Amino acid sequence: MPDTELLSLQRDHIQILQQRYEQVLVAHGYDSLLVSAGAAPMRYGDDQSWHFQGYGPFLHWTGLAGQEHSWLLIRPGQVPILWLYQPVDFWHANLDLPEEPWHQAVEIHFREQQCAPPMALTGKLAVIGDPALLAKVGGEHNPADLLADLDETRVHKTPYEIACLARANEIAMLGHKAARDAFLAGGSEFEVSLAYQRATRQREAEAPYHSIIGVNEHAGTLHYQYYDTEAPARSRSLLIDAGVRFRGYCSDITRTTPAAGEGRFSALVQGLEQLQRRLCKMVAPGVDYVAIHRKTHEGIAALLNAAGVVSGLDDATLIERGITRAFFPHGIGHFLGILVHDVAGKRQPSPADAPFLRLTRTLEPGMVVTIEPGFYLIPSLLDPLLSGPLGDHFNHAVIDELRGCGGIRIEDNVVVTGDGATNLTREAGG
Protein backbone atom coordinates (compact mmCIF):
# COMPACT_ATOMS: atom_id res chain seq x y z
CA MET A 1 0.00 0.00 0.00
CA PRO A 2 1.47 3.41 -0.95
CA ASP A 3 2.18 5.78 1.94
CA THR A 4 -0.29 8.31 0.54
CA GLU A 5 -3.12 5.79 0.85
CA LEU A 6 -2.04 4.74 4.34
CA LEU A 7 -1.88 8.37 5.50
CA SER A 8 -5.36 8.98 4.14
CA LEU A 9 -6.59 5.95 6.07
CA GLN A 10 -5.15 7.41 9.27
CA ARG A 11 -7.31 10.49 8.93
CA ASP A 12 -10.35 8.22 8.56
CA HIS A 13 -9.10 6.22 11.55
CA ILE A 14 -9.19 9.31 13.78
CA GLN A 15 -12.73 10.08 12.70
CA ILE A 16 -13.77 6.53 13.58
CA LEU A 17 -12.08 6.82 16.98
CA GLN A 18 -13.84 10.13 17.61
CA GLN A 19 -17.18 8.42 17.02
CA ARG A 20 -16.31 5.41 19.20
CA TYR A 21 -14.99 7.53 22.07
CA GLU A 22 -17.97 9.89 21.93
CA GLN A 23 -20.33 6.94 22.34
CA VAL A 24 -18.36 5.66 25.34
CA LEU A 25 -18.11 9.06 27.01
CA VAL A 26 -21.82 9.79 26.58
CA ALA A 27 -22.73 6.32 27.87
CA HIS A 28 -20.72 6.93 31.04
CA GLY A 29 -21.79 10.53 31.54
CA TYR A 30 -18.45 12.25 30.87
CA ASP A 31 -18.11 15.55 29.02
CA SER A 32 -14.40 15.21 28.26
CA LEU A 33 -11.49 12.79 28.47
CA LEU A 34 -7.84 13.67 29.01
CA VAL A 35 -5.33 11.00 27.97
CA SER A 36 -1.76 11.03 29.25
CA ALA A 37 0.94 9.68 26.91
CA GLY A 38 2.93 8.64 29.96
CA ALA A 39 6.64 8.92 30.69
CA ALA A 40 9.47 6.53 31.36
CA PRO A 41 9.99 5.97 35.10
CA MET A 42 13.43 6.35 36.59
CA ARG A 43 15.27 3.23 37.62
CA TYR A 44 15.45 2.83 41.38
CA GLY A 45 18.73 4.15 42.79
CA ASP A 46 19.82 5.43 39.39
CA ASP A 47 19.63 8.61 37.32
CA GLN A 48 18.65 6.70 34.15
CA SER A 49 15.12 5.92 33.02
CA TRP A 50 13.59 2.85 31.43
CA HIS A 51 12.91 2.97 27.69
CA PHE A 52 9.54 4.56 26.88
CA GLN A 53 6.88 3.23 24.50
CA GLY A 54 3.72 5.12 25.39
CA TYR A 55 0.27 4.47 26.85
CA GLY A 56 -2.09 2.40 24.68
CA PRO A 57 -4.99 4.88 24.17
CA PHE A 58 -2.55 7.67 23.30
CA LEU A 59 -0.84 5.43 20.74
CA HIS A 60 -4.24 4.35 19.41
CA TRP A 61 -4.95 7.95 18.42
CA THR A 62 -1.50 9.22 17.43
CA GLY A 63 0.90 6.32 16.82
CA LEU A 64 3.63 8.41 18.51
CA ALA A 65 5.33 5.71 20.55
CA GLY A 66 8.22 7.81 21.85
CA GLN A 67 6.36 11.01 22.76
CA GLU A 68 6.59 11.41 26.56
CA HIS A 69 4.78 13.95 28.77
CA SER A 70 2.17 14.66 26.12
CA TRP A 71 -1.60 14.91 26.48
CA LEU A 72 -4.69 14.39 24.34
CA LEU A 73 -8.11 15.93 25.09
CA ILE A 74 -11.22 14.33 23.59
CA ARG A 75 -14.68 15.94 23.77
CA PRO A 76 -17.90 14.91 22.05
CA GLY A 77 -18.59 17.04 19.00
CA GLN A 78 -15.27 18.90 19.14
CA VAL A 79 -11.88 18.54 17.49
CA PRO A 80 -9.38 16.66 19.68
CA ILE A 81 -6.55 18.75 21.14
CA LEU A 82 -3.05 17.30 21.27
CA TRP A 83 -0.29 18.85 23.40
CA LEU A 84 3.16 17.55 22.50
CA TYR A 85 6.06 17.98 24.91
CA GLN A 86 8.88 19.75 23.03
CA PRO A 87 11.34 21.30 25.51
CA VAL A 88 14.27 23.53 24.62
CA ASP A 89 16.96 21.12 25.74
CA PHE A 90 20.66 20.74 24.90
CA TRP A 91 20.80 17.29 26.54
CA HIS A 92 18.23 15.49 24.39
CA ALA A 93 16.68 15.81 20.94
CA ASN A 94 12.97 16.22 20.33
CA LEU A 95 11.10 13.86 18.05
CA ASP A 96 10.39 15.18 14.58
CA LEU A 97 6.73 15.48 13.63
CA PRO A 98 6.52 15.36 9.82
CA GLU A 99 3.52 17.11 8.32
CA GLU A 100 0.84 14.47 7.66
CA PRO A 101 -2.89 14.54 6.75
CA TRP A 102 -4.08 13.38 10.19
CA HIS A 103 -2.88 16.68 11.69
CA GLN A 104 -5.85 18.31 9.96
CA ALA A 105 -8.19 16.30 12.19
CA VAL A 106 -6.46 17.32 15.44
CA GLU A 107 -5.55 20.66 16.99
CA ILE A 108 -1.84 20.39 17.82
CA HIS A 109 0.12 22.51 20.31
CA PHE A 110 3.74 22.29 21.46
CA ARG A 111 4.72 23.05 25.02
CA GLU A 112 7.81 22.90 27.23
CA GLN A 113 6.07 21.82 30.43
CA GLN A 114 5.66 18.16 31.40
CA CYS A 115 2.54 18.64 33.50
CA ALA A 116 -1.02 18.55 32.19
CA PRO A 117 -1.96 21.66 30.18
CA PRO A 118 -4.30 24.29 31.63
CA MET A 119 -7.84 23.71 30.39
CA ALA A 120 -11.03 25.70 30.81
CA LEU A 121 -13.44 22.79 30.93
CA THR A 122 -16.99 22.47 32.17
CA GLY A 123 -18.80 19.28 33.11
CA LYS A 124 -17.45 15.91 34.10
CA LEU A 125 -13.83 15.08 33.22
CA ALA A 126 -12.17 11.66 33.13
CA VAL A 127 -8.38 11.37 33.08
CA ILE A 128 -6.59 8.16 32.10
CA GLY A 129 -2.96 7.13 32.19
CA ASP A 130 -0.16 6.21 34.57
CA PRO A 131 -1.42 7.16 38.06
CA ALA A 132 2.06 8.44 38.95
CA LEU A 133 1.58 11.27 36.44
CA LEU A 134 -2.02 12.16 37.32
CA ALA A 135 -1.69 13.18 40.96
CA LYS A 136 -2.06 16.91 40.35
CA VAL A 137 -4.65 16.63 37.58
CA GLY A 138 -8.34 17.21 38.33
CA GLY A 139 -11.16 14.94 37.25
CA GLU A 140 -11.84 11.26 37.85
CA HIS A 141 -8.74 9.13 37.39
CA ASN A 142 -8.87 5.83 35.50
CA PRO A 143 -12.52 4.90 36.15
CA ALA A 144 -12.65 1.13 35.70
CA ASP A 145 -15.95 0.90 33.79
CA LEU A 146 -14.88 3.62 31.37
CA LEU A 147 -11.50 1.98 30.79
CA ALA A 148 -13.15 -1.35 30.01
CA ASP A 149 -15.31 0.23 27.32
CA LEU A 150 -12.39 2.21 25.91
CA ASP A 151 -10.50 -1.08 25.62
CA GLU A 152 -13.36 -2.34 23.46
CA THR A 153 -12.69 0.46 20.95
CA ARG A 154 -9.41 -1.33 20.14
CA VAL A 155 -10.92 -4.78 19.47
CA HIS A 156 -12.19 -4.18 15.92
CA LYS A 157 -9.36 -2.72 13.90
CA THR A 158 -9.92 0.08 11.40
CA PRO A 159 -8.58 -0.23 7.82
CA TYR A 160 -5.69 2.03 8.85
CA GLU A 161 -4.76 -0.24 11.75
CA ILE A 162 -4.83 -3.34 9.55
CA ALA A 163 -2.62 -1.57 7.01
CA CYS A 164 -0.13 -0.70 9.77
CA LEU A 165 -0.15 -4.26 11.08
CA ALA A 166 0.44 -5.56 7.55
CA ARG A 167 3.43 -3.22 7.16
CA ALA A 168 4.79 -4.33 10.54
CA ASN A 169 4.61 -7.92 9.29
CA GLU A 170 6.42 -7.05 6.06
CA ILE A 171 9.28 -5.40 7.93
CA ALA A 172 9.52 -8.16 10.53
CA MET A 173 9.74 -10.85 7.85
CA LEU A 174 12.84 -9.15 6.46
CA GLY A 175 14.32 -9.59 9.92
CA HIS A 176 13.25 -13.21 10.25
CA LYS A 177 14.85 -14.13 6.95
CA ALA A 178 18.09 -12.39 7.96
CA ALA A 179 18.00 -14.14 11.34
CA ARG A 180 17.58 -17.54 9.71
CA ASP A 181 20.49 -16.88 7.37
CA ALA A 182 22.70 -15.74 10.26
CA PHE A 183 21.91 -18.91 12.22
CA LEU A 184 22.57 -21.21 9.26
CA ALA A 185 25.88 -19.41 8.73
CA GLY A 186 26.91 -20.36 12.26
CA GLY A 187 25.93 -17.21 14.11
CA SER A 188 25.39 -16.99 17.85
CA GLU A 189 22.13 -15.82 19.44
CA PHE A 190 23.64 -12.34 19.75
CA GLU A 191 24.66 -12.32 16.10
CA VAL A 192 21.18 -13.51 15.09
CA SER A 193 19.74 -10.58 17.07
CA LEU A 194 22.04 -8.11 15.31
CA ALA A 195 21.06 -9.54 11.91
CA TYR A 196 17.37 -9.12 12.77
CA GLN A 197 17.82 -5.52 13.91
CA ARG A 198 19.93 -4.65 10.89
CA ALA A 199 17.30 -5.99 8.49
CA THR A 200 14.35 -4.33 10.26
CA ARG A 201 16.26 -1.10 10.95
CA GLN A 202 14.75 -0.97 14.41
CA ARG A 203 16.62 -1.00 17.69
CA GLU A 204 15.56 -3.74 20.07
CA ALA A 205 14.47 -1.09 22.60
CA GLU A 206 11.97 0.24 20.04
CA ALA A 207 10.52 -3.20 19.26
CA PRO A 208 7.14 -4.18 20.75
CA TYR A 209 8.81 -6.78 23.00
CA HIS A 210 12.21 -8.23 23.77
CA SER A 211 13.01 -10.68 20.99
CA ILE A 212 13.11 -14.35 22.00
CA ILE A 213 16.11 -15.91 20.27
CA GLY A 214 16.88 -19.42 21.44
CA VAL A 215 19.45 -21.78 19.93
CA ASN A 216 19.29 -25.50 20.79
CA GLU A 217 17.85 -26.21 24.25
CA HIS A 218 17.20 -22.49 24.85
CA ALA A 219 14.29 -22.82 22.41
CA GLY A 220 12.51 -24.82 25.11
CA THR A 221 12.24 -21.78 27.42
CA LEU A 222 9.10 -20.01 26.24
CA HIS A 223 10.25 -16.46 26.97
CA TYR A 224 14.01 -17.06 26.83
CA GLN A 225 15.56 -13.65 27.53
CA TYR A 226 19.34 -13.93 27.11
CA TYR A 227 21.62 -13.99 24.07
CA ASP A 228 24.76 -16.12 24.07
CA THR A 229 27.57 -14.23 22.34
CA GLU A 230 29.28 -17.46 21.27
CA ALA A 231 27.64 -20.11 19.11
CA PRO A 232 27.52 -23.63 20.57
CA ALA A 233 29.90 -26.30 19.28
CA ARG A 234 26.94 -27.78 17.41
CA SER A 235 23.99 -25.60 16.47
CA ARG A 236 20.91 -27.78 16.03
CA SER A 237 17.92 -25.43 16.05
CA LEU A 238 16.85 -21.79 16.18
CA LEU A 239 13.59 -20.41 17.56
CA ILE A 240 13.10 -16.68 17.04
CA ASP A 241 10.00 -14.84 18.25
CA ALA A 242 10.37 -11.21 17.18
CA GLY A 243 8.33 -8.31 15.84
CA VAL A 244 8.54 -4.63 15.00
CA ARG A 245 6.51 -1.49 15.62
CA PHE A 246 5.18 0.47 12.67
CA ARG A 247 3.46 3.75 13.55
CA GLY A 248 2.78 2.26 16.97
CA TYR A 249 1.39 -1.09 15.74
CA CYS A 250 3.00 -4.43 16.52
CA SER A 251 3.85 -7.56 14.64
CA ASP A 252 4.50 -10.78 16.56
CA ILE A 253 6.01 -13.59 14.49
CA THR A 254 7.78 -16.81 15.43
CA ARG A 255 9.77 -19.13 13.19
CA THR A 256 11.80 -22.27 13.95
CA THR A 257 14.73 -23.37 11.81
CA PRO A 258 16.39 -26.80 12.06
CA ALA A 259 20.08 -27.12 11.24
CA ALA A 260 21.27 -29.36 8.44
CA GLY A 261 21.28 -33.01 9.40
CA GLU A 262 18.49 -32.73 12.00
CA GLY A 263 16.14 -35.07 10.15
CA ARG A 264 13.84 -36.06 13.00
CA PHE A 265 13.55 -32.54 14.37
CA SER A 266 13.05 -31.16 10.85
CA ALA A 267 10.15 -33.58 10.35
CA LEU A 268 8.57 -32.32 13.58
CA VAL A 269 8.94 -28.72 12.40
CA GLN A 270 7.22 -29.63 9.14
CA GLY A 271 4.45 -31.40 11.03
CA LEU A 272 3.83 -28.40 13.27
CA GLU A 273 3.93 -26.11 10.23
CA GLN A 274 1.13 -28.12 8.62
CA LEU A 275 -0.89 -28.00 11.84
CA GLN A 276 -0.34 -24.26 12.19
CA ARG A 277 -1.59 -23.58 8.67
CA ARG A 278 -4.75 -25.63 9.35
CA LEU A 279 -5.37 -23.68 12.55
CA CYS A 280 -4.98 -20.37 10.72
CA LYS A 281 -7.65 -21.50 8.26
CA MET A 282 -10.04 -21.99 11.19
CA VAL A 283 -10.03 -18.25 11.87
CA ALA A 284 -13.39 -16.84 10.75
CA PRO A 285 -16.35 -14.85 12.12
CA GLY A 286 -18.38 -16.80 14.67
CA VAL A 287 -15.56 -19.18 15.61
CA ASP A 288 -14.88 -19.65 19.31
CA TYR A 289 -11.17 -18.92 19.79
CA VAL A 290 -11.04 -21.50 22.59
CA ALA A 291 -12.08 -24.11 20.01
CA ILE A 292 -8.94 -23.29 18.00
CA HIS A 293 -6.87 -23.83 21.12
CA ARG A 294 -8.49 -27.21 21.76
CA LYS A 295 -8.06 -28.23 18.13
CA THR A 296 -4.35 -27.51 18.62
CA HIS A 297 -4.15 -30.17 21.33
CA GLU A 298 -5.75 -32.65 18.96
CA GLY A 299 -3.04 -31.83 16.45
CA ILE A 300 -0.26 -32.14 19.04
CA ALA A 301 -1.59 -35.55 20.08
CA ALA A 302 -1.57 -36.72 16.48
CA LEU A 303 1.96 -35.39 16.04
CA LEU A 304 3.19 -37.22 19.15
CA ASN A 305 1.93 -40.51 17.77
CA ALA A 306 3.03 -39.88 14.19
CA ALA A 307 6.55 -38.93 15.28
CA GLY A 308 6.89 -42.01 17.46
CA VAL A 309 7.33 -39.98 20.64
CA VAL A 310 4.57 -42.02 22.31
CA SER A 311 2.95 -45.34 21.58
CA GLY A 312 0.02 -47.32 22.94
CA LEU A 313 -2.04 -44.23 23.80
CA ASP A 314 -4.68 -42.84 21.47
CA ASP A 315 -5.01 -39.12 20.78
CA ALA A 316 -7.97 -38.66 23.12
CA THR A 317 -6.08 -40.23 26.02
CA LEU A 318 -3.04 -38.03 25.40
CA ILE A 319 -5.28 -34.98 25.78
CA GLU A 320 -7.33 -36.25 28.72
CA ARG A 321 -4.25 -37.28 30.71
CA GLY A 322 -2.60 -33.88 30.20
CA ILE A 323 0.25 -35.24 28.11
CA THR A 324 -0.26 -32.79 25.26
CA ARG A 325 -0.09 -29.91 27.75
CA ALA A 326 3.42 -30.99 28.72
CA PHE A 327 4.50 -30.51 25.11
CA PHE A 328 2.28 -27.47 24.43
CA PRO A 329 1.79 -25.64 27.76
CA HIS A 330 0.78 -22.15 26.58
CA GLY A 331 -2.26 -20.71 24.80
CA ILE A 332 -2.75 -20.67 21.05
CA GLY A 333 -2.48 -16.88 20.89
CA HIS A 334 -3.93 -13.47 21.70
CA PHE A 335 -5.21 -10.19 20.32
CA LEU A 336 -2.67 -8.02 18.50
CA GLY A 337 -2.62 -4.27 17.91
CA ILE A 338 -1.09 -1.30 19.69
CA LEU A 339 0.11 -3.80 22.29
CA VAL A 340 1.59 -7.14 21.38
CA HIS A 341 -0.85 -8.72 23.84
CA ASP A 342 -3.65 -6.30 23.11
CA VAL A 343 -6.48 -5.54 25.51
CA ALA A 344 -10.02 -6.90 25.98
CA GLY A 345 -9.23 -10.49 25.11
CA LYS A 346 -10.84 -12.10 28.14
CA ARG A 347 -14.46 -11.25 28.74
CA GLN A 348 -14.56 -14.50 30.68
CA PRO A 349 -11.76 -16.36 32.47
CA SER A 350 -9.60 -18.90 30.68
CA PRO A 351 -11.04 -22.42 30.87
CA ALA A 352 -9.48 -24.93 33.25
CA ASP A 353 -7.87 -26.86 30.40
CA ALA A 354 -6.28 -23.68 29.01
CA PRO A 355 -5.15 -21.63 32.03
CA PHE A 356 -2.69 -19.47 30.07
CA LEU A 357 -4.99 -18.61 27.17
CA ARG A 358 -5.10 -14.82 26.69
CA LEU A 359 -8.16 -14.72 24.42
CA THR A 360 -11.52 -16.36 25.15
CA ARG A 361 -13.86 -14.53 22.79
CA THR A 362 -15.84 -15.48 19.71
CA LEU A 363 -14.10 -14.07 16.64
CA GLU A 364 -15.63 -11.12 14.77
CA PRO A 365 -14.61 -9.17 11.65
CA GLY A 366 -11.85 -6.68 12.35
CA MET A 367 -10.22 -8.65 15.15
CA VAL A 368 -6.52 -9.43 14.72
CA VAL A 369 -5.16 -12.52 16.46
CA THR A 370 -2.02 -14.60 16.61
CA ILE A 371 -1.98 -18.33 15.94
CA GLU A 372 1.09 -19.89 17.55
CA PRO A 373 1.12 -23.63 18.27
CA GLY A 374 4.25 -25.02 19.90
CA PHE A 375 5.96 -28.34 20.56
CA TYR A 376 8.59 -28.25 23.31
CA LEU A 377 10.82 -30.58 25.30
CA ILE A 378 10.82 -28.83 28.68
CA PRO A 379 12.50 -30.93 31.39
CA SER A 380 10.37 -29.63 34.26
CA LEU A 381 7.18 -30.68 32.44
CA LEU A 382 8.44 -33.77 30.62
CA ASP A 383 10.53 -35.56 33.23
CA PRO A 384 7.61 -36.21 35.65
CA LEU A 385 5.73 -37.90 32.78
CA LEU A 386 8.70 -40.06 31.84
CA SER A 387 9.13 -41.28 35.41
CA GLY A 388 5.38 -41.59 36.08
CA PRO A 389 2.89 -44.40 35.52
CA LEU A 390 2.68 -43.70 31.76
CA GLY A 391 6.45 -43.55 31.31
CA ASP A 392 6.63 -46.84 29.40
CA HIS A 393 4.50 -45.33 26.63
CA PHE A 394 7.24 -42.82 25.76
CA ASN A 395 10.07 -43.53 23.36
CA HIS A 396 12.93 -42.39 25.56
CA ALA A 397 15.51 -42.71 22.80
CA VAL A 398 13.56 -40.39 20.48
CA ILE A 399 13.02 -37.87 23.27
CA ASP A 400 16.70 -37.94 24.22
CA GLU A 401 17.60 -37.26 20.59
CA LEU A 402 15.24 -34.27 20.44
CA ARG A 403 15.99 -32.69 23.81
CA GLY A 404 18.94 -30.69 22.55
CA CYS A 405 16.73 -28.94 20.00
CA GLY A 406 14.60 -27.34 22.72
CA GLY A 407 11.33 -26.80 20.93
CA ILE A 408 9.30 -25.43 18.06
CA ARG A 409 6.89 -22.51 17.74
CA ILE A 410 5.35 -21.12 14.55
CA GLU A 411 3.32 -17.92 14.81
CA ASP A 412 1.37 -15.84 12.31
CA ASN A 413 -0.74 -12.68 12.62
CA VAL A 414 -4.25 -13.14 11.22
CA VAL A 415 -7.09 -10.66 10.53
CA VAL A 416 -10.69 -11.85 10.83
CA THR A 417 -12.57 -10.71 7.71
CA GLY A 418 -16.26 -10.72 6.83
CA ASP A 419 -16.15 -14.25 5.45
CA GLY A 420 -12.90 -15.76 6.70
CA ALA A 421 -9.44 -14.43 7.42
CA THR A 422 -6.32 -12.83 5.94
CA ASN A 423 -2.95 -14.10 7.10
CA LEU A 424 -0.81 -10.97 7.25
CA THR A 425 2.37 -12.92 7.93
CA ARG A 426 2.07 -15.31 4.99
CA GLU A 427 1.07 -12.45 2.69
CA ALA A 428 4.27 -10.72 3.77
CA GLY A 429 6.26 -13.71 2.54
CA GLY A 430 6.46 -15.55 5.84
TrEMBL record:
The keyword Manganese applies. Keywords: Dipeptidase, Hydrolase, Manganese, Metal-binding, Metalloprotease, Protease. Binds 2 manganese ions per subunit. Mn(2+) 1 binds at D252, H334, E372, E411. One of its GO terms (cellular component) is cytosol. Its EC number is 3.4.13.9. GO terms for molecular function: aminopeptidase activity; metal ion binding; metalloexopeptidase activity; phosphoric triester hydrolase activity; proline dipeptidase activity. One of its GO terms (biological process) is proteolysis. Its cofactor is Mn(2+). Residues 11-150 form the Xaa-Pro dipeptidase N-terminal domain. Transmembrane segments: none annotated. Residues 164-417 form the Peptidase M24 domain. It is an enzyme of class 3 (hydrolase). SUPFAM superfamilies: Creatinase/aminopeptidase. InterPro entries: Creatin/AminoP/Spt16_N, Creatinase/aminopeptidase-like, PepQ_N, Pept_M24, Peptidase_M24B_aminopep-P_CS, X-Pro_dipept-like, X_Pro_dipept. The keyword Manganese applies. Mn(2+) 2 binds at D241, D252, E411. It catalyses: Xaa-L-Pro dipeptide + H2O = an L-alpha-amino acid + L-proline. Belongs to the peptidase M24B family. Bacterial-type prolidase subfamily. Splits dipeptides with a prolyl residue in the C-terminal position. NCBIfam families: PRK13607.1. This is Xaa-Pro dipeptidase. It comes from Marinobacter salinus. The lineage of its organism: Bacteria, Pseudomonadati, Pseudomonadota, Gammaproteobacteria, Pseudomonadales.
